[in-house]
């Protein structure tokens, strides 16, 4: 199961995605989701021993380290199988167009070019599962798919702006699917699933997994942005600092 907050910005509610990929509202059983939500006592109320995925909702700079440390404690205690971040967006990726091959540090890591391409190939795979059609960016798989490694030669890759634009196009197709079929469409069976993987049986489950996957890589992008000297994503006012 995956624990999350969902809804319009400022009106988020606690929820959980069950083993069948269905979103369940937890407003009647839980307050807002915090670290305390995953204490043994709270998990008992949710009738589970752990959640599969815990995502930090928003990258507030002044709280990010403390919140991540709390998530790590939950992970270590077995309250969650996986932790990650959300609300880093494609806009933050686009800002790396002037230095797409910059690595997070001397130890290596994924640069923005590979992150953009990887997200695009995986979003294409989602279209393959939803519609039963070939991955529209199949030709990029050797560069960006699972098993590939980032390289430092820009000539190897297609233009950065082209890759980002293709991701936007494919994500738009996902939104169009949701607009066409609505909430009931989340229970539609997918046309195909990745061999050897489980959890992609319904459209809702596949979309949720791919969205969570993107959140993880966009979270990693924050390290690349810092290495590039980009402006912080959130700069609190003096009033906020004093609050």
How would you describe the overall organization of this protein?
This protein has 243 residues and is an alpha/beta fold. It has two domains: 87 residues; 155 residues, Up-down Bundle (Four Helix Bundle (Hemerythrin (Met), subunit A)). Strands 3-2-1-4-5 form a five-stranded mixed β-sheet, with helices on both faces. Helix 2 links the parallel strand 4 and strand 5. Helix 4 packs parallel to helix 6 and helix 4 runs antiparallel to helix 7. It is globular, with a radius of gyration of 19 Å. The two termini are 35 Å apart. The mean pLDDT is 79.
Task: Decide which structural class fits the backbone.
Answer: alpha/beta
CATH superfamily of the largest domain: dinb family like domain
Beta-strand content estimate: 5-15%
Order of H and E elements: EEEHEHEHHHHHH
Helix content: 40-55%
């Amino acid at each position: 199961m995956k624990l999350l907050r969902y809804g319009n910005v400022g009106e988020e509610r606690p929820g959980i995605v069950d083993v069948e990929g269905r979103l369940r509202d937890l407003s009647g059983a839980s307050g807002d989701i915090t670290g305390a939500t995953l204490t043994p006592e709270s998990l008992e109320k949710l009738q589970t021993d752990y959640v599969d995925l815990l995502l930090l909702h928003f990258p507030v700079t002044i709280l990010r380290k403390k919140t991540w440390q709390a998530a790590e404690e939950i992970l270590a205690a077995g309250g969650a199988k996986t932790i990650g971040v959300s609300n880093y967006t494609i806009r933050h990726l686009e800002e790396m167009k002037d230095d797409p091959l910059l690595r997070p540090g001397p130890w290596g890591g994924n640069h923005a070019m590979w992150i953009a391409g990887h997200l695009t190939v995986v979003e294409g795979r989602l279209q393959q599962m939803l519609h039963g059609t070939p991955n529209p960016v199949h030709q990029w798989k050797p560069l960006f798919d699972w098993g590939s490694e980032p390289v430092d030669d820009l000539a190897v890759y297609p233009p950065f702006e082209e890759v980002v634009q293709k991701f936007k196009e494919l994500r738009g197709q996902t939104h169009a699917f949701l607009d066409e079929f609505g909430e009931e469409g989340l229970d539609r069976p997918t046309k195909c699933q990745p061999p050897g993987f489980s959890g992609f049986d319904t459209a809702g489950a596949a979309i949720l997994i791919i969205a969570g996957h993107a959140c993880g890589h966009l979270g990693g992008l924050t390290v690349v942005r810092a290495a590039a000297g980009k402006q912080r994503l959130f700069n609190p006012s003096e009033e906020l600092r004093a609050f």
